[in-house]
Amino acid sequence: MLDIVRCILARDLLLAVRRRSDVATALLFFVIVASLFPLGIGAEPNLLRAIAPGVIWVAALLSTMLSLGRLFAADYADGTLEQLALGAAPLGVVVAAKGIAHWLVSGLPLVLIAPLLALQYDLAQSLYGVLALSLLLGTPVLSMIGAIGAALTLGVRGGGVLLALLVLPLYVPVLIMGAGSVEMAAAGLEPDGQLLILGALLAFTAAFAPWASAAALRISLE
Amino acid sequence: MNTAVRWFWFASPHTFFPLAGTIARVCALLAVPLGVAGLYVGFVVAPTDAQQGEVYRIIFIHVPAAWMSMFLYLVMAFWAALGLAFNTRLSAMMAQALAPTGALFTFIALWTGALWGKPTWGAYWVWDARLTSELILLFLYFGFMSLHASIDDPRRADRAAALLAIVGAVNVPIIYYSVQWWNTLHQGASVSFTKAPSMAATMFLGMMLMALAFWLYSIAVAMVRVRCLIRERE
Lengths: 222, 234
Known about the structure:
The structure holds two protein chains of two kinds. Helices cover 86% and strands 0% of the residues of chain A. By secondary structure, chain A is mostly helical. Chain A has one domain (2-221). Chain A is globular, with a radius of gyration of 18 Å. By secondary structure, chain B is mainly alpha-helical. Chain B has one domain. Chain B has helices spanning 2-9, 13-45, 59-86, 89-121, 129-150, 154-185, 201-233. In chain B, helix 3 (59-86) runs parallel beside helix 7 and helix 4 (89-121) runs parallel beside helix 6. Chain B is flat.
């Protein structure tokens, strides 16, 4: 079982390394979206400090969503996905491995670059840790839930926009808890509650979302 | 075995088609007098509220619509799950037939809520927990309908949309509680549902009549829509 995970992980990461620009685009999108907000609403430091957690989290949401299309599309187009579905390995495990690979490529960089954006927004340095931790717990959930949407919209007309409509409402709890934890810490309170709920969401989606995605893939591959 | 056969007898679209017509007619005929009676009780008989005046009368439409919006999503997810489990064509058609009615009631609940909010709260929209989760519910309905509409093969569309409905149904309580918590965090908007201390019996009667009328209307409309779907597909 672990061999399958390792194999798919290595393959997807290798593919991502070979197509570096795809990874960079989603990351740049994250930075650009976050940089647009001060231009739109003015550079008042207090205002920026107040909106920073929300803006960074919304940008992370959109950036993750943008890269979801890549999750299955290439494998679907060249028939690899069909072979994986026919293979002996449980499709749920395959999907989980692909989800982890997707997170390593598009979620983890967001976690690492988020403190830089926090710097732009003049967020207190004591909050960097909470921000990074909330993203570390939250972005895998985004990848896992997003995989369901990506599998459902595979080969569907207007897939990109439809994917946003399907996935963004399901992202609401993660956004609330993620941005909430940073705001909580900014207010001088313990952010443990929100972070623990983010952890619970992660455990819940890690257990169930891959099977839902696998079911969705089977429907799309019919 | 015999009971199992009975259960699935009406699962065939062909045997269900005439029954759906009868149910639609009966429900529609009952919904009209109940709706008229409910509106009469609500707008004429029920006393004016001591705190809110005449404005409160919108709850006779607002509250039943909000009930239906949430309940219909669960019914839709139930039929979707049944269709996915037993691969029955009719279950998926039921889910598809219910979605527009559910979205309509969600929209009505939001719209009437805004009309009630302006004179009472002083704003058409506040980020109250219930309003926000109702809005997200509307997005979930739209997602279900758009996914179904954008897949050409109806059987594949049924199954994909069914899976989405189930995922959504699992998420509805999570969304509801997270939104509630989020709202208590933001104490800035200190608006709460100022309920009348005790509800007069006529108010309750009016609301129940309207809720019943909405129920029957939903059933009738869903049946008519299912008949259209059967005609279209079979």
